[in-house]
Design brief:
Layout (H helix, E strand, L loop, with lengths): L7 E8 L6 H11 L3 E12 L4 E6 L2 H12 L6 E4 L5 H11 L6 E3 L14 H11 L5 E2 L3 H8 L6 H12 L6 E3 L13 E5 L2 E5 L11 H14 L4 H19 L2
Parallel strand pairs: 1-2, 1-4, 4-5, 5-6
Antiparallel strand pairs: 2-3, 7-8, 8-9
Length: 251
């Protein structure tokens, strides 16, 4: 009897040596859902929980060869992208993923929690033009959604307008994360926008701030898509996972 192959996810993101964010956080999320993993490094960052000290980006050729080596032998069931710092790297990723019909979750990492700029404006523009049309889901936080849409988000109506703009760039769905919410919005409330409308996902206990939650949330969503879940189901499972991680930080 042939063994059933477990689902496998690929993360294409930056490496954080402190383990708080980036690829290490992605792999933690994949493992939590019993999904096999592969990883492509786009940049080596120098950061910890207190400060961002810089980064050395891989070449587009290096990123392309890493992706090629994975796709040559592995059947990938979902892809999550994180830090894509240059337009050349984004072009390499888009050329490798285009036409493959693999579920894609894009976490548009524009800056780090500790203050570092992780993507140039040129790269942001290419991300929206080349990669967003391939995406099943985009997962910006509020500052990222504001950058992508050029709209100020102070309430849920503003968030809806920003999401409509981002979906207009080609994505199937947008999850605007509420960890950076203004006073008019509930902190920790994530808003999923699809063709069917808006769905609300609350974090009932926002216990503690934790770096890397955005990385893990997007990766957990990708893991659940690899397992066959629909977008809403994947977001719900990922949100429960992140809530559990926040709760553990308070113990």
């Amino acid at each position: 009897m042939k063994a059933v192959r477990p689902p496998k996810c690929l993360t294409i993101a930056g490496f954080d040596p402190s383990g708080g964010a980036g690829i290490i956080a992605d792999l933690k999320a994949f493992r939590a859902f019993d999904v096999d993993s592969a990883a492509v490094v786009t940049s080596i960052t120098f950061q910890n929980d207190r400060e961002f000290l810089g980064a050395e980006h891989r070449s587009a050729g290096s990123v392309a060869r890493q992706i090629d080596s994975v796709l040559a032998v592995d059947e990938i069931d979902a892809v999550k992208t994180g830090m894509l710092p240059t337009s050349q790297i984004i072009g390499a990723v888009a050329s490798r993923l285009g036409g493959r019909n693999i579920p894609l979750v894009i976490d548009p990492v524009i800056s780090s929690t500790t203050g570092g700029t992780l993507m140039s404006s040129e790269a942001t523009n290419r991300l929206t033009k080349d990669l967003f049309p391939l995406a099943d889901l985009i997962t910006p936080n509020i500052p990222e959604a504001e950058t992508l849409s050029s709209l100020k988000i102070a309430n849920e109506s503003d968030a809806a307008a920003a999401a409509r703009y981002i979906i207009g760039l080609g994505a199937n769905a947008v999850l605007i994360k509420g960890g950076h919410a203004a006073e008019q919005m509930k902190k920790g409330r994530d808003l999923l926008f699809t063709e069917g409308g808006m769905e609300v996902f609350d974090c009932h206990e926002l216990m503690v701030e934790m770096r890397g939650t955005g990385c893990m949330l997007a990766s957990a969503i990708a893991a659940n898509l690899a397992l066959g879940a629909a977008i809403s189901e994947a977001v719900s499972a990922a949100k429960a996972f992140i809530t559990a991680q926040l709760r553990r930080k308070t113990l």
